[in-house]
Amino acid sequence: MGKATGFMEYDRQEESWIPEKERISNFQEFHKHPDENTRKCQAGRCMDCGVPMCQSAIELKGMVTGCPLHNLIPEWNDEINQEHYEHALSRLLKTSNFPEFTGRVCPALCEKACVLGSLDGNPVTIHDNELFLIEKAFENGWMTPKIPKIRSGKKVAVIGAGPAGLAVADQLNHRGHLVTVYEREDRIGGLLMYGIPNMKLDKKIVERRRKLMEEEGVVFQTGCDIGKDVDFAGLQKQYDAVILCCGAKKARTLNVAGSEECEDIYYAVDFLKSATKDLLRRQKDEWTISAKGRNVVIVGGGDTGNDCLGTCIRQGAKSVTQLEMMPKPPEKRTADNPWPEWPKVLKTDYGQLEAIQIFGADPRIYETTVKDLITEQGKLKAIRTVKVRFENRILKEIKGSEKEIKCDMMLIAAGFTGCEDYVAKACNVNVTKRGTVETAEGTYHTSVPGVFAAGDMRRGQSLVVWAIAEGRHCAAEADRYLMGYTPLT
Ligand SMILES: Cc1cc2nc3c(=O)[nH]c(=O)nc-3n(C[C@H](O)[C@H](O)[C@H](O)COP(=O)(O)OP(=O)(O)OC[C@H]3O[C@@H](n4cnc5c(N)ncnc54)[C@H](O)[C@@H]3O)c2cc1C
Ligand code: SF4
After folding, report:
1. Which amino acid residue places its CA nearest to atom 48 of ligand 1?
2. Which CATH architecture has domain 265-412?
3. Could you write out the DSSP letters of every residue in 366-419?
4. Cα(19) to centroid of ligand 2, in Å?
5. Model confidence over 314-341: pLDDT tens digits?
6. How much distance in Å is there from the Cα of 309 to the middle of ligand 1?
7. pTM above the 0.90 mark?
8. Where are the CATH 3.50.50.60 domain residues in the chain?
9. What's the rounded Cα separation, in Å, for the pair 17 and 80?
10. Rounded to the nearest 10 degrees, how much is the dihedral formed by the CA atoms of 299, 420, 198, 318?
11. What is residue 461's predicted lDDT score, i.e. its pLDDT?
């Protein structure tokens, strides 16, 4: 342990964000660059617990706390505290393929399980320490291409270049297989590129990783839609194994009359993707789908809704309201939700904080949904909302609670219901009742021999860290299938 008394000497100090009023003028990342001295002290708060719950990833009441990658957190915290940065990096990279992504966007499942957090509610800043370390490594030129010395002669196709596909490709390439990643978009990254907004994850960070992986031998074929541009059976003949990592982008629809036809209603991911595409090719301040001057209602109070909120504010929306069906969570853990369970508490994220600063009020309205659309000549003018409540798990409307809200643009961020039908059909794989690709229990093997699945496509809409963890496990199984044994974990 670097500093035995660190947890008593130093208070928790997170990396600060650029103030709301300043950061909403652009789409640049809002986290400030990690400061070395602060991170060193913060890493010294790690107590090197006998049972480090942060790296355990245990499931409690259906939710996981602790790092799904089993990152060796106490080890690299200790090395950071002692300024042994290169050694700390080698320990981090042992379990994590892309800490520059998780260091920016991971909700830090590790911190929710940190033992220090159980004592005083101020866990070690694991997430910020991780980002500090990987960015220091890139800055110092330690992230050089590691080209495999021996090739196995086996060829693998990965379909989908989101975090799951990238993790599979990285693992199998380093194992010596020849990996080609097929991606239907013009850029790699999946939701890292065309979902999570630039202010949370700068797209240059994704491109930086692409360059490194290409130098290491991974081939990316972008603009290539399997099932539309390329025949799946042809791929199976060409490759020794095929791995499906196509995500779970089938959006939950809004069950409101006229919503499918109304041209002022968009799905959240379509809106966010369009905003990032505009930013990347931008000459002028113009948006293909614009919230500028509009009264926007976002249906869905979760993280995707929050990303829409931050994007609408930056585009100059007149007002933004976020509707959430569930009741407002408590500010603090309740007695039936003790540490180290995932804390079911109120989270006010960056977009909501910005809305509070700009519009003077929290944009979220709880236990409320859309009842009707009010349109004039096909244009959305307002919506009627209604209060709802779950009674015996059935959602019931509360009579007389209807209200009208001005709305000329609506974004649906109500979650996802599984992978897109055409992909599963084209690959001829079985699909579960949840709309995800079926794999044999406890494995990543689909119903088709030699075809594997990982990430959201198998797990359902989840988190970047889970996509990477699934990618790693799936790569190990595919390797065992190809070689008869595997050193991958
Ligand atoms: C708006 C939004 C914000 C989010 N923010 C966070 C966050 O802050 N932190 C976090 O941890 N998680 C976040 N998530 C969840 C996280 O992004 C996903 O869990 C993760 O990206 C899943 O990775 P994946 O590789 O399985 O799928 P995806 O990232 O969806 O990637 C799948 C890829 O497959 C490609 N593809 C699909 N079909 C084909 C085909 N037929 N041929 C070729 N290519 C194909 C797609 O174009 C895509 O690039 C967010 C999700 C959304 C929607
Ligand atoms: S990947 Fe997420 S859960 Fe794991 S150590 Fe990093 S921030 Fe924590």
Report:
1. 190
2. 3-Layer(bba) Sandwich (3.50)
3. -SEEEEEEEEETTEEEEEEEEEEEEETTEEEE-TT--EEEE-SEEEE---B-SS
4. 25
5. 999 999 999 999 999 999 999 999 999 9
6. 19
7. yes
8. 155-249+417-483, 265-412
9. 22
10. -30
11. 95
